[in-house]
Design goal:
Blueprint: E1 23-29, H1 37-47, E2 55-57, E3 68-73, H2 76-83, E4 89-99, H3 102-111, H4 114-121, E5 126-131, H5 147-154, E6 165-166, E7 173-179, E8 197-205, H6 210-214, H7 230-239, E9 247-250, H8 257-264, E10 268-273, H9 276-281, E11 283-284, E12 291-292, H10 294-300, E13 308-311, H11 328-331, E14 338-343, E15 354-356, E16 382-384, H12 387-401, E17 402-415, H13 418-422, E18 435-444, E19 449-458, H14 464-481, H15 484-496, H16 515-527, H17 534-543, E20 545-546, E21 552-553, E22 569-571, H18 575-585, E23 598-600, E24 609-611, H19 619-631
Parallel strand pairs: 5-6, 5-7, 9-10, 9-14, 10-13, 14-17
Antiparallel strand pairs: 1-3, 1-4, 2-3, 4-8, 7-8, 11-12, 15-16, 17-19, 18-19, 20-21, 22-23, 23-24
Helix pairs in contact: 7-8
């Protein structure tokens, strides 16, 4: 059974029993953040008090990532309440009919309730029909701009007759004619989504997505390297029910991206960060020369400023009674003051987590006081903050500070591969005795790695003893089954490739380039002299050959048998290879009987040969390619011998 919503201030009352005329609707989702769509929808239904009444039915064809889902809602008012804030829902449609083709669609519309159809197509009403196709777009021409829409409407006439007047702006009733493209015609979209025709009355269409452009990061003056994407910030704000009368805290606020999204929905915001430079000092705007900071962002968007921005350490929070060693009477002093906690903790992959510490201690164990003249610009020392410890502190503080019914939402690292995911052990699904998991949504950032947004609801009053027992049990489980640090080690090894083989361009397990590669490339780039560009280098290569070892040499040195040749001889493998070499050098050589490919090197021991295809020099074919490259001669496709190895 779902837990009671709790005592959140200003929670909207549930819809009345009289309004609960249950009906099925077509929920048209955006084809973005596929794992977040239903989670956000359910969170908004919970916010409006009818979460228990929401039911889902599988999309047509059983394809879960299809944008067309069937949902049962109490009423049209419930649909409108969700669409006021939903970021990932395009619209909710009262479905009048659907089919695999126009004939099936018309038959379904004809069978729909006649009284309902008459109510919205009556004489004197105004209507508008829009084509909201998925995976394709029908365009009119200069001479026939409205042709596609008119023909689509005319095709519906056997089933539905519009007696009102068409109006392009401000129509009373909006209808959507939807067609999903054939699998072969879908561009950049999974081809397993079946083609289908839908028609119905639009109960509510999304207007919330306009905020994505309003708060576009490209237009924001104060940003950081890890500022949260606008769309995801708005989704996170919906997951924690940010709204009027609620206080939302971001303990990793940085430049305030998530707080801006929460303020957009009317919440009072509060942020903290361990980096005092981000919170207090800001930076200089390059365009205007003005000083900008977190407060500037709120001012630019005309949003209510935060209640407070604190330089604070989550590991040692400043809230009264928040320390685990506090007295029983003080432990609950701050409980119930927040209705939302949201954030993106540092994983230690791109930006490492930090906590207070590292200062030298005096013999008595105390730290030396900061001199008065340095206090104004003092930056406290910090030490690394393991992610599993950060996650525990975040859930502990949320369990203390949230009111019952309040929500916590934050990102944790995740893996697409089951083996990688299993390395996180018990931390793959975070837990706390006072918090109940409500949603877990995966965002893939590559084919192997991603992050997961987990959302919890506080369902019990804080119990210090129960929290300590759960923490001790979690510590023991991590010793036996691993923790989030094990998953992060795999992720870091892939991203930075700290292994011995730093020259492997594909990185560990063939994913991404290693740090060694990047540093080598930068070093080579710095050392590389400016020689006039690629055309100058091409002329230089034509003037001087390049031998097999990469050093410059005269043209004759790279072609055996010519005057001035060095004593390296190639025994070609086939007549085709011999002919190719003869063509490039402008001379004749006898056809060589197809035998085993060898390269004879006088520097080797007498009689020693090197088989072609070995990774050290690419073999005879590799030498042939280098000879042509050094001479500036392009090989014709007809004379190029087959080669399926790697030239070094």
């Amino acid at each position: 059974a779902r837990a009671a919503p709790g005592r959140l201030r200003d929670r909207p009352p549930p819809f009345s029993r009289r309004a609960r005329t249950m009906g099925w609707y077509l929920c048209y989702f955006m084809h973005r953040h596929l794992d977040f769509r239903r989670a956000e929808f359910q969170a908004l239904a919970d916010l409006n008090g009818f979460g228990d009444a929401v039911e889902w039915r599988a999309p047509f064809g059983g394809v879960e990532h299809s944008p067309f889902h069937y949902v049962r809602l109490p009423s049209d008012d419930a649909a409108r309440a969700i669409m006021k804030r939903s970021i990932l829902t395009k619209g909710i449609v009262e479905l009048w009919g659907e089919g695999n083709d126009q004939d099936e669609l018309n038959a379904a519309i004809a069978a729909f309730d006649a009284e309902t159809k008459a109510r919205y197509t009556a004489e004197g009403s105004t209507f508008k029909v829009e084509l909201e196709d998925f995976g394709k777009t029908l365009h009119g021409t200069r001479d026939d701009n409205w042709g596609p829409a008119v023909r689509r409407i005319d095709a519906l006439k056997p089933a539905v007759e519009f007696n009102g007047r068409a109006r392009m702006k401000g129509a009373e009733h909006l209808f959507w004619s939807i067609e999903s493209a054939e699998g072969n015609d879908l561009r950049g979209i999974p081809s397993d989504i079946p083609s289908r025709h839908y028609f119905g009355r639009v109960v509510a269409a999304s207007a919330a997505r306009a905020a994505i452009n309003t708060y576009d990061l490209k237009k924001r003056r104060y940003l950081g390297p890890t500022s949260m994407d606008v769309e995801m910030s708005l989704i996170m704000a919906n997951m924690v029910h940010a709204g009027p009368g609620r206080v939302v805290w971001d303990p990793f606020c940085g430049t305030g991206s998530v707080l801006i999204a929460a303020a957009h929905f009317g919440a009072m915001t509060m942020g903290s960060d361990i980096d005092v430079r981000v919170i207090r000092w800001g930076k200089k705007d390059k365009r205007t020369g003005e000083h900008v900071d977190v407060w500037t962002n709120f001012k630019d968007y005309a949003l209510p400023p935060p209640i407070a921005l604190l330089r604070a350490d989550l590991h040692k929070p400043p809230f009264r009674g928040a320390a685990a060693s506090g007295a029983a009477s003080e432990r609950g002093a701050c409980e119930g003051h927040l209705q939302g906690v949201v954030g993106d903790p540092p994983y230690g992959v791109r930006a490492g987590g930090r906590k207070s510490g590292g200062r030298k201690r005096l013999p008595d164990g105390t730290a030396r006081a900061v001199p008065e003249q340095h206090r104004e610009n003092h930056i406290p020392s910090t030490v690394p903050y393991p992610f599993h410890e950060c996650m525990d502190d975040l859930m502990e503080q949320a369990a203390r500070l949230l009111s019952v019914g309040g929500r916590l939402s934050f990102f944790v690292p995740a893996a697409a591969d089951p083996e990688d995911a299993a390395s996180a052990g018990v931390d793959s699904v975070p837990s706390h005795p006072m918090l109940t998991l409500r949603a877990s949504s995966m965002q893939l950032l590559s084919t192997r790695w991603g992050r997961r947004l987990v959302t919890f609801e506080k369902t019990k009053k804080y119990d210090h003893e129960a929290a300590e027992e759960a923490k001790a049990a979690l510590t023991e489980a991590r010793k036996k089954g691993g923790n989030m640090e094990d998953l992060l080690e795999r992720m870091r090894a892939t991203v930075y490739h700290h292994g011995e083989n730093v020259d492997d361009k594909d990185g560990e397990d063939g994913v991404g380039g290693g740090r060694g590669d990047a540093e080598d490339k930068k070093k080579k780039k710095k050392e590389k002299p400016k020689d006039g560009g690629k055309f100058a280098r091409r002329r230089e290569r034509r003037r001087r050959g390049v031998d097999g070892e990469g050093s410059t040499a005269p043209f004759e040195d790279s072609h055996p048998g010519l005057p001035g040749t060095r004593s390296r001889v190639i025994a070609h493998t086939s007549a085709a290879a011999a002919a190719a070499s003869a063509d490039s050098a402008g001379r004749e050589i006898d056809a060589v009987e197809p035998t085993k490919d060898v390269v004879v090197d006088p520097e080797r021991e007498e009689g020693a040969t090197l088989e072609v295809g070995k990774p050290d020099d690419g073999g005879a074919v590799g030498e042939l390619h280098r000879a042509h490259s050094g001479a500036g001669v392009r090989m014709g496709k007809a004379s190029r011998p087959d080669f399926r190895g790697k030239n070094t």
